[in-house]
Write a structure and sequence with these properties.
Elongation Factor Tu (Ef-tu), domain 3, Rossmann fold, alpha/beta, 22% helix, 18 strands, five-stranded parallel sheet, binds flavin-adenine dinucleotide, five-stranded mixed sheet, Ubiquitin-like (UB roll)
Length: 319
C-alpha cells in the first residue's frame, strides 16, 4: 500500500527526551483505522524508515476505528543513526510520508485479566492496549516503570484512563523493577511487555524458568542488538539467481542485500516480527532473533535476516 502524506498538527514535550507528535491529513479526512499495538513506518530523509507505535489514551473506540489523527511518542536516541533526531526536529506544518498501520503486537481476546508492563518509551503500544481494554470493558492492570517520575510520558492521561489499576515504578525511588515478583505472582494471566531489550530478555528467561505456556508472554522490541564484538564478514548466496553478496562484519544480511539492489521483505528490523524470514539451503545460521522457537532455531531451516548472521563463511538462502 502506498504511504500516506501527513502533516504535523502539533508537537508536545511529553517528558524529558520524549516528544508527542500528532499527524493529520492536510484534507482533514479520516485516516485508516488501527488496533492497539500497531505502529506506522515513518520515512526518514536520505532513505529508510523508523517505526513508531500509535498512541491512544482515550476509551472511545472511534478514536482508533475512524481516526482523525495519529499520535506518536518518540524518544530521542542519542546513540542512534538520526531517525529519532529527525523526529525531534519536526514542527507544526511539516509533512511526512507514513505507512498504513501494521500490527505485530495485537491483543489476543481473553476473559482473563490482562497484565500490561511498560518500561520507558515502551509505554506507547502499552498505553493503547490499556485504552482498548478499557473501551471493551475488559479487566487489565498496567505497570509502568521508568527511571524517575518526570520520565513518565502520558502520565496524567494514563492515570485518568487506568485508575485504580495503574501501578507506577520509578527506579530512583525503589531500585530496579522486580520483574520476578510480578511474574511469579501471576496465575494464568497473559503478560504484554514493551521496554528495553534487557527487560524483555529477562522476561523471556523467567517465562522459561516458570514453565509458562508458549504465547503467554507477548512482547515487542524497539531496537535491534547493536553489532557485537567479534562479528565477522561472510557471503550470502542467493540460490535462485546464484548471486553472491558480501555481508560486512558491521552490516546485517538485510542491509547487505538491500545495498546489492535486492528488495527483501522486512518490518521491525529487531528480529521480532518474522517478516524478513527466508529459507536456508546451505550453511549454518547464527540465530539472534526473538521470532523462531528453540526447535525451529535448531532445525536451521529458516533465518531472520534483519538480525541473524552466519556461523559459516557462506550461507545459501532460498531467495
Ligand atoms: C515496531 C516498533 C515500534 C516502535 N515504536 C517506537 C515508539 O513508539 N517510540 C520510539 O521512540 N521508538 C519506537 N521504536 C524505535 C524507533 O523505530 C527507532 O529505532 C528509534 O526512534 C531510534 O531511531 P534512531 O534512528 O535514532 O536510532 P537507530 O539508528 O535506529 O538506533 C537505535 C539503537 O539501536 C542500536 N543499533 C542497532 N544497530 C545499530 C547499528 N548498526 N549502528 C548503530 N546503532 C545500532 C543503537 O544502540 C541505537 O541506540 C519502535 C521500533 C519498532 C520496531
Amino acid at each position: 500500500m502506498e504511504p500516506i502524506e501527513l502533516v504535523v498538527s502539533s508537537v508536545q514535550q511529553e517528558a524529558p527526551g520524549i516528544r508527542g507528535i500528532t499527524l493529520i491529513r492536510a484534507s482533514g479526512d479520516p485516516l485508516p483505522g488501527w488496533t492497539a499495538g500497531a505502529h506506522v513506518d515513518v520515512e526518514i530523509p536520505g532513505g529508510g524508515h523508523r517505526s513508531y507505535s500509535l498512541v491512544n489514551t482515550s476509551d472511545q473506540a472511534d478514536v482508533t476505528t475512524s481516526p482523525s489523527s495519529y499520535r506518536l511518542g518518540v524518544r530521542l536516541d542519542e546513540a542512534g543513526r538520526g531517525g529519532s533526531a529527525f523526529m525531534h526536529l519536526l514542527k507544526k506544518g511539516d509533512t511526512l510520508r507514513v505507512s498504513h498501520p501494521k500490527n505485530n503486537f495485537a491483543l489476543t481476546p481473553t476473559d482473563d485479566e490482562v497484565v500490561l508492563l511498560a518500561g520507558g518509551i515502551g509505554i506507547t503500544p502499552i498505553a493503547s492496549m490499556a485504552a482498548e481494554l478499557r473501551a471493551q470493558g475488559k479487566r487489565f492492570r498496567l505497570v509502568y516503570a521508568a527511571r524517575n517520575r518526570i520520565g513518565l510520558a502520558f502520565f496524567q492521561e494514563l492515570t485518568r484512563l487506568c485508575s485504580p489499576t495503574l501501578c507506577v515504578h520509578c527506579d530512583d525511588e525503589g531500585g530496579m523493577y522486580d520483574l520476578r515478583a510480578l511474574m511469579v505472582s501471576l496465575e494464568t494471566q497473559p503478560l504484554y511487555l514493551c521496554g528495553p531489550t534487557a527487560l524483555i530478555d529477562a522476561a523471556i528467561a523467567l517465562a522459561k524458568e516458570l514453565g509458562w505456556q508458549e504465547g503467554r508472554l507477548r512482547f515487542e522490541l524497539f531496537s535491534a542488538a547493536a553489532p557485537s564484538e567479534g562479528d565477522t564478514a561472510f557471503d550470502v548466496i542467493l540460490s535462485r539467481s546464484g548471486k553472491r553478496v558480501h555481508v560486512r562484519a558491521d552490516q546485517t544480511i538485510l542491509d547487505a542485500l538491500t545495498d546489492a539492489g535486492e528488495t527483501p521483505n522486512c518490518d521491525c528490523r529487531c528480529g521480532d516480527c518474522g517478516l524478513c524470514q527466508v529459507g536456508v539451503i546451505d550453511g549454518l545460521p547464527d540465530h539472534r532473533d526473538y521470532y523462531l522457537s528453540e526447535k525451529e532455531k535448531s532445525s536451521n531451516k529458516f533465518i531472520q535476516i534483519c538480525v541473524s548472521r552466519s556461523k559459516t563463511s557462506e550461507l545459501t538462502l532460498d531467495i
